[in-house]
């Protein structure tokens, strides 16, 4: 629907019978984590560094709330300094983000597109953005500089087909992890609700 690759997901995967956000903490990468920590999280899920970089390319669509990156764009010593620019970030981009997010503490819904140039299209622009300092999240920008991840950023920025192929394979691999079977899961009638949901 948004121009990305076709992903062959196997049928019949069951959904969890419960949902607890406390079980998720520590299993998802956060914007302010070190690259070592992020690589460790993906590694514990059986994913390689290359697969991690491909999956993070999903940030080519969607948005992030300002609170997720505010500490990056606002200097704690000079909260709204017009000339402050985080390391690796394009200075004009940083200034525009500060304008956009100036009231983020009063409006929790304030957000910015992860990919400022083609936010509604699944493409390799995300990686090109990183090469030019347009990484919204600190963790995104970090993959453009880390020696373990940069070669894949450069590859996917130069070759959209390579990105699409790697993304599809990594998604397929990830979708086959911790599959629920028999009574451990349920096939939901609506994917956003438990079958016994009463509203």
Automatic annotation (TrEMBL):
Biological source species: Brassica napus (Rape)
EC annotation from Swiss-Prot or TrEMBL: 1.11.1.7
Gene3D superfamilies recorded: 1.10.520.10, Peroxidase, domain 2 (1.10.420.10)
Cofactor(s), by name: Ca(2+); heme b
Keywords in alphabetical order: Heme, Iron, Metal-binding, Oxidoreductase, Peroxidase
The protein, known as: peroxidase
Enzyme class, first EC level, given as a word: oxidoreductase
One Pfam family here: peroxidase
PROSITE patterns on file: PEROXIDASE_1, PEROXIDASE_4
């Amino acid at each position: 629907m948004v121009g990305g690759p076709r992903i062959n997901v196997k049928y019949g995967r069951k959904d969890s019978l419960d949902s607890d956000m406390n079980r998720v903490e520590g299993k998802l990468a956060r914007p302010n984590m070190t690259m070592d920590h992020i690589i460790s999280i993906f590694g514990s899920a059986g994913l390689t560094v290359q697969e991690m970089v491909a999956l993070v390319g999903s940030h080519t669509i969607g948005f992030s709330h300002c609170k997720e990156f505010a500490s990056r764009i606002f200097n704690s010593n000079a909260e709204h300094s017009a000339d402050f620019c985080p390391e690796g970030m394009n200075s004009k981009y940083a200034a525009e983000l500060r304008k956009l997010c100036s009231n983020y503490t009063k409006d929790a819904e304030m957000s910015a597109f992860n990919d400022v140039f083609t936010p509604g299209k699944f493409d390799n622009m995300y990686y090109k953005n990183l090469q030019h300092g347009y990484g919204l999240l600190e963790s995104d920008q970090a993959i453009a500089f880390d020696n373990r991840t940069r070669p894949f950023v450069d590859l996917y920025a130069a070759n959209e087909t390579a990105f699409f192929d790697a993304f599809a394979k990594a998604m397929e691999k990830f979708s086959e992890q911790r599959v629920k079977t028999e009574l451990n899961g349920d096939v939901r009638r609506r994917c956003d609700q438990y079958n016994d949901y009463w509203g």
